[in-house]
Specification:
about 300 residues; Pseudouridine synthase; 3 domains; 9-stranded mixed β-sheet; 4-stranded antiparallel β-sheet; 6 helices
Length: about 300
C-alpha cells in the first residue's frame, strides 16, 4: 500500500474531499468515495465523510493500492523543457498518455523508465494535468510536484492555458477563419463524442485556414474549451474530418493528422508566462509535401 499526503491549496478551499481525492489521484468519484468509506483517507489525521469540505492548508492523507503497477516502459520521450516543478514533452503519435485496461506502453510508464519524479506517484496518472488522444502527437506539460499539479489543474479549469494545433483535414476549407460553437455529449451507444443538446457541454473552437491543397486543407486550430475529442468532432461536423480519423468519418491513413503544436501557461512556481512549441513530426511534413505535389 502506498501512502500519499497532499496539502490543500487556496483554490481547493471548500471543495468536497471526495472530489479532491478524485482529481489528485485521477480516479473516478465513486472509487474515491469507496476509499473514504473504507477509512483510507484522513484529513488532519481524522477520518472524514465524502462530503467533508476542505480548508486551506489542511493535509489530506490517502492510503491507496493502484489496481495496476506502474512498470517502466523502455522508451525515451522527447523532453522540451524540465525544471523542479514541470516537464514539457513532445508526445509522439500512437503513445497513450496513461495506463488503461492493462496498457503499459504509455507516456507515464516511459517517464518512470526515464527516472522522472511525477506528482501523485501512487496514482495511475501521476503528474497528468491534461491529455492528448493516443493518436495525437505534440506538446504536453506534466507536473512533478503536487503544488505544480494543483496550480496547473486550476489554470486548465479556468481556461487560462492557451493551446494551438495543426490539423490536416479532408476537403478544401472555404472560410479563412471561423469559430465553431457546438455543444458536445457522450454517445454511449457508439462509444464516441457527438454534437448534441441534451446533457451536453458547451465548446468553442477557433479555426484558421493556413494552406489549401487539391482535396485537403491545413488548419491552425485553437480549442477555447477542453472537451474530449472536441477538435475532431467539430471539424467532422462541418464536413472536414481530420485525415486518418476513421472514428469521426475521416479516410484511413498511416496516422491521425492532428498535432498539438503550441502550449502557453503560467509557471506554477515563478508565475512567469511560458510558451512551448513542438515542431511538426517528419511524417506530418512528408504528408504535406505529397499534398503539395498533387496540385
Amino acid at each position: 500500500m502506498s501512502r500519499s499526503t497532499y496539502r490543500v491549496n487556496a483554490q481547493f478551499k471548500g471543495v468536497r474531499v471526495d472530489k479532491y481525492i478524485s482529481e489528485c489521484l485521477r480516479l473516478s468519484r465513486r472509487y474515491a468515495q469507496k476509499l473514504i468509506k473504507e477509512g483510507k483517507v484522513r484529513v488532519g489525521r481524522k477520518i472524514v465523510s465524502s462530503d467533508y469540505r476542505l480548508q486551506e492548508k489542511e493535509e489530506v492523507e490517502v492510503n491507496y493500492i493502484p489496481s495496476e503497477g506502474l512498470s517502466p516502459y523502455e522508451y525515451e520521450v522527447p523532453i522540451l523543457y524540465e525544471d523542479e516543478a514541470i516537464i514539457v514533452v513532445n508526445k509522439p503519435a500512437h503513445l497513450s498518455v496513461h495506463p488503461a485496461g492493462g496498457e503499459k506502453d504509455t507516456l507515464v510508464n516511459a517517464l518512470i523508465y526515464m527516472g522522472k519524479t511525477l506528482a501523485g506517484s501512487s496514482s495511475l496518472r501521476p503528474g497528468i494535468v491534461h491529455r492528448l488522444d493516443k493518436e495525437t502527437s505534440g506538446v504536453m506539460v506534466v507536473a512533478k510536484t503536487l503544488d505544480a499539479y494543483e496550480d496547473l489543474v486550476e489554470q486548465f479549469r479556468r481556461r487560462r492555458v492557451k493551446k494551438e494545433y495543426r490539423a490536416l483535414v479532408e476537403g478544401r476549407v472555404r472560410e479563412e477563419k471561423m469559430s465553431i460553437s457546438l455543444p458536445l455529449q457522450r454517445d454511449h451507444k457508439n462509444f464516441c463524442i457527438k454534437v448534441g443538446f441534451l446533457h451536453a457541454r458547451s465548446s468553442l473552437t477557433e479555426v484558421e485556414r493556413k494552406e489549401v491543397f487539391k482535396d485537403a486543407s491545413l488548419l491552425l486550430v485553437r480549442p477555447l474549451s477542453g472537451r474530449m475529442h472536441q477538435i475532431r468532432v467539430h471539424l467532422s461536423f462541418f464536413g472536414h474530418p481530420i485525415i486518418g480519423d476513421v472514428k469521426y468519418k475521416g479516410r484511413p491513413a498511416e496516422r491521425l493528422y492532428l498535432h498539438a503544436e503550441r502550449i502557453e501557461f503560467r509557471h506554477p512556481l515563478s508565475g512567469k508566462q511560458m510558451s512551448f512549441k513542438a515542431e511538426l513530426p517528419e511524417e506530418f511534413m512528408v504528408k504535406i509535401g505529397r499534398l503539395r505535389e498533387q496540385e
